[in-house]
What we know:
Distance between the termini: 28 Å
Shape: globular
Amino acid sequence: EVHEGxxxxxxxxxxxxxxLREVCGLEDTPQAVARFLRETDGLDKRAxxxxxxxxxDFCKQVLYAYVDSIDFANLTFDQALRRFxxxxxxxxxxxxxxxMMEKFAERYCSQNEGVFANADTAYxxxxxxxxxxxxxxxxxxxxxMTQQEFVNMNRxxxxxxxxxxxxxxxxxxxxxxxxxxxxEMMEHERRAAAASxxxxxxxxxxxxxxxxxxxxKESQELFKAKxxxxxxxxxxxxxxxxxxxxxxxxxxxxASWSTIMxxxxxxxxxxxxxALVMRGFANAVHIAAEFGMATERDAFVTMLAKYTYxxxx
Length: 313
């Protein structure tokens, strides 16, 4: 019966859990379900990640219990992130990834006090490491992010202060010399899947490019309207002044960058441009997180999940 429940869970996670409760006697508590997900053999990591990322209250409690059962004490930040990502595949939806990464950040900080000013720092830095991992180990990106660029990208994320440079440099070395295996998928499988969906992807790409062009045009018109107004340039060091600029241009940035990434396997797209776009995604996530702009952050994280293979679909 438990084996049948595992099969049902791998096909439909929530339906499988319901079967395990009703037929197999699985206790109806977040702790019991979390223990089942941690200790049961044969569970599909994609299904586990999908269930843990659900937004229902019970699933959130399972996520909290699950992550709280993982020991991150005395681990370096990259070691903790590696351990976290060995248990499941992150789902493809931005909101699900968000919930899981936020809980990871909170758990790490609770077990390693003094490393970061708060959990928000760990949350942002975790995304930075995932971006660096893709940049460093993707064969499609020829011009790699340098150590100094990584350090510069993460300035000001520690409650508006800087993390120690040696700390960031050690993380850079750890990721660039030892890849985080985010998704266990052989290259030939990816190519086979890509080949089988060429026609569908071409159609989707045309529609995507059309929608992107509309978004870019609307943003251009907005900029033109603002440009027609007489304005005076003011120099400022107040970070809050960046918010309205980001609000005005994030749609155009997302559309243009996504268009480039959609065509990244085309020989006509320089690898240097792809690397620049990847860093743009990282900076956009940082800015949106800094200002608490959830919609904008989710939009960039969704594209990040897609282009860094966080999406397990």
